[in-house]
Amino acid sequence: MELQQQFEAAVARSKELTQRPSNEELLRLYALYKQGSEGDVTGDRPGGFDFKAIAKYDAWAELKGKSKEDAMNEYIAFMDNLYHQYK
Fold first, then answer.
1. How many domains is the chain built from?
2. What confidence tier does 87 reach under pLDDT thresholds 50, 70, 90?
3. Helices 3-14 and 68-86 sit at what angle, rounded to 10 degrees?
4. What is the C-alpha to C-alpha distance for residues 74 and 21, in angstroms, rounded to an integer?
5. In sequence order, which residues have a C-beta less than 8 Å from that of residue 18 and are 6 or more positions away?
6. Domain range spanning residue 14?
């Protein structure tokens, strides 16, 4: 299976979890997904009191410079671990 197809399958599997992963795990999934699908973070860091948006932006920004392919592979592996843990 091609990397893009494996990535999309892992994204689909994320919706099948029966328990909610921790906030840290969800942030990591989000950041890897965004890096794998869009590349480096763009735009300004959210300000004010939107702490959720700030946390998501910061998590994604930490992956700056990581290739889309590496991020996809990490997402797939991380999702496999979560799937076995929370399914």
1. 1
2. confident
3. 40
4. 17
5. 86, 87
6. 3-86
Residue whose C-alpha is closest to residue 36's, from 62, 1, 6, 73:
73
CATH of the domain at 17: 1.20.80.10
Say how far apart CA 53 and CA 21 lie, in whole Å. Answer: 18
| C-alpha distances out from residue 46 to 20, 31, 37, 49, 86, Å | 25, 15, 21, 9, 31
Q: What is the pLDDT of residues 3-19, one digit of tens each?
A: 999 999 999 999 999 99
Q: Which helix (H) or strand (E) holds 3?
A: helix 3-14
The whole-number pLDDT of residue 56 equals 97
| pTM (predicted TM-score) | 0.94
